[in-house]
Design brief:
alpha/beta, Rossmann fold, 2 domains, 5-stranded parallel beta sheet, two-stranded antiparallel ribbon, 18 helices, 9 strands, 50% helix
């Protein structure tokens, strides 16, 4: 079955149901899977990081592995123990059944607390999708590894390991303005129903196979200019990160229904900047590059990266269309009025698009 945008939206909505402010994470997991790259989430404990990953894995029907690492975590806890039957025959084989090497989607909490032995083994899996231990050497089905930590490591060796995660997302606790939403959503999240009309891992993998077919000729000169501008402002990315960012740009174009990458697909560069300071600084430096950022499927991630009206428009239209699909007698009037206020606060008569203007008129009729 081919990729269907509405299925992707349903998958994301399932993943964030009842979880306030985690739309970015759900969307970036999908982007990472398509690009075959990995994601690092930095933020305090209890911010629903693992919940989103777990739900994405369940929605796409992927084999999932999750573990909280500590100083005393043994490699066998992640990768499997020695197969005793094989050992009696003189071979050191690892039984990986149900362990990390057999998983499609992996979530490792406190990932930087892993021992040298664990991190070195992980590097082989992250980089090459190959697990090697003793006589065991297998290709892993890993689509994405999501690492989580309270902060970025200061140790140089660990920083090099962090660099293997191409996307860096910084999350925080829900702000005071959304405490009520957090409480209501938290209660509802205990009773989540998963819609069957979600995108499968097989469909996403098929989309990943199209990555090399995306034409990059239009975007490479613009991307190169953006990298030069970052370097001019003392934000240097490793050559590896620069080249791999092209995969994220191509994946963004694919998810937006195109096999031609354009300037509007440059926004993943924001998430490649490795520190929160760099991201905030880069957002200002690259403002003109991000001005046309747009993605009809990953609009929350785009809006947060670019802070531009065009990216915001996609989210507003999606939220409005969701409300309009409800029976008018059941529509929460406050939600519609809040959406109308946000539209009016961000767009003037001169700047609002015809598409959004039409949606606004429909919302007005709904509350009239």
């Amino acid at each position: 079955m081919e990729y269907q945008p509405q299925q992707l939206q349903q998958t994301i909505q399932n993943a964030i149901q009842g979880l306030v402010g985690r739309e970015q994470l759900a969307e970036l997991i999908i982007l990472s899977i398509v690009a075959k790259e990995h994601l690092l989430v930095i933020g305090p404990p209890g911010t629903a990081k693992s919940a989103v990953v777990r739900r994405i894995a369940k929605a796409v029907q992927g084999q999932y592995f999750e573990y909280l690492l500590g100083r005393f975590t043994e490699p066998t806890e992640l990768f499997g123990a020695v197969d005793l039957k094989q050992l009696r025959e003189g071979r050191v084989e690892i039984d990986t059944q149900g362990m990390l090497p057999q998983a499609d989607i992996v979530f490792l909490d406190e990932v930087f607390l892993g021992s040298t032995a664990i991190l070195n083994t992980l590097l082989g899996i992250l980089n090459e999708r190959v697990f090697r231990k003793g006589h065991t050497q297998i290709e892993t089905p890993l689509k994405v590894c999501i690492g989580a930590s309270n902060s970025l490591p200061e140790d140089e060796t660990l920083s090099a390991f962090a660099d293997r995660f191409l996307i860096h997302l910084f999350v925080d606790s829900v702000s005071d303005n959304f405490i009520e939403d957090l409480l209501i959503g938290g209660w509802q999240s205990e009773h989540v129903n998963f819609d069957s009309n979600t995108i499968t891992l097989e469909q996403i993998s098929a989309l990943s196979n199209e990555l090399s077919k995306v034409k990059m000729d239009l975007v490479i000169p613009i991307f190169a200019e953006a990298i030069r501008l970052l370097r001019k402002n003392n934000i240097a990315l490793s050559d590896r990160r620069v080249v791999k960012t092209l995969k994220l740009i191509a994946a963004a174009a694919l998810l937006n229904g195109r096999k031609q990458a354009k300037k509007q697909d440059l926004w993943p560069l924001f998430y490649v900047l490795p520190t929160q300071e760099y991201q905030k600084k880069g957002q200002v430096i690259l403002k003109e590059f991000f001005a046309v950022s747009q993605n009809s499927q990953l609009f929350n991630a785009v809006e947060a990266a670019s802070l531009q009206p065009l990216a915001r428009e996609e989210r507003l239209i999606f939220e409005a269309e969701t409300l309009l699909q409800l029976n008018p007698t059941n529509v929460e009037r406050l939600n519609v009025e809040s959406l109308l206020r946000e539209i009016d606060a961000n767009y003037s008569i001169e700047s609002i698009s015809e598409r959004l203007l039409t949606i606004r008129k429909q919302l007005v009729q709904l509350v009239s």
